[in-house]
Structures are given as C-alpha cells and as structure tokens.
Amino acid sequence: MADERTYPQRPFLAVSAAILRDGKLLVVRRARKPALGLYTMPGGVVEAGETLFEAVAREVREETSLEIQPLALAGHREAIVRDRDGKVERHFIILCFAARWISGEPVLNEELDEARWLEPAELAALRTTEGLAEIVASAFEIVERKT
After folding, report:
1. The overall pTM is greater than 0.85
2. Less crowded by CB within 10 Å, the N or C end of the chain?
3. Within a 13 Å sphere around the CA of 14, how many CA atoms are in the beta-carbon half?
4. Each residue's pLDDT tens digit in the chain (147 positions)?
C-alpha cells in the first residue's frame, strides 16, 4: 500500500529516542518494511505544530506506552532507500535524542514486534539500523552529564 512517504517529493523529518534506564538501553525490533527485523530506537515522523521534544515523547508513547524525558540531541541519521531503478522510494532525516525513562513498561504497537532493555555492549550481537551504536554512545554521555 503506497502512502505519501513512499516515493516522496521531499524528505520527511523524524525523531527517535535512545531511552536509558538503570544503565540499560531500550531497543525495539521493527515489524514492517523498510527496517523489518532490525533493532533500533522507537520513534517516527514529526507532526505539524509539534516541537521535537513533543514529537519524540509522543512517538515513544504511541509505539511503546513509555513516558520519557527527552534531554538533548544525540545525533542524526539519514535514511534513503532507492528502488531497483535508483529512484528514491523513502527518505527520512532522523533526529535522535537521548532520553530518560520516566515510567511504564513496553507495550508495543503494530509497528514493533519486540522490545529489550540491553547493556550497550549487547548491541554488537544484533542486526541494527546503521549508526545505532554511535547514537547510543552519545546518549549515554549526555545522560551522564545531565545527572
């Protein structure tokens, strides 16, 4: 099913959160294409009228039912997917935030099929989205500075 995000006229702005709790990170596994089966951070597209912090808190709540406190930008990623003919099929600019867990336990929506709290070193054993380990390292540094 095509939507406005498939073969877009422009990139979409998205946010994600490296959520830290007791020295561990929440990772989620995507249940849909284009990142099907990859572990990553919860997040999604910013809606008109939202601040970035509002968007990341809403997306995390929608995907996992968790309440978080976004702290600061931990990095960014560009996700560009091209079809067999080289045409841009998807294009997202993702701003990744360091965040503290406030409350709740993961209850996943239909976009995700697994959630785990991990030590950062455990990421190496998983299939993750590109650049995840670097974002996580930055997020841990931010949280330590803000503690």
Report:
1. yes
2. N
3. 22
4. 457 889 999 999 999 999 999 999 999 999 998 789 999 999 999 999 999 999 999 999 999 999 999 999 999 999 999 999 999 999 999 999 999 999 999 999 999 999 999 999 999 999 999 999 999 999 999 999 987
Burial of 43 (0-12, 13-18, 19+ CB in 10 A): buried
CB 15 within 8 A of CB 55: yes
Residue 108 to residue 13: CA distance in whole angstroms: 22
DSSP 58-105: HHHHHHH--EEEEEEEEEEEEEEEE-TTS-EEEEEEEEEEEEEEEE--
The SS3 assignment for 14 reads strand
Residue 114 annotated as catalytic:
yes
Query: From the CB of residue 29, how many other CB atoms can be counted at a distance below 10 Å?
Result: 19
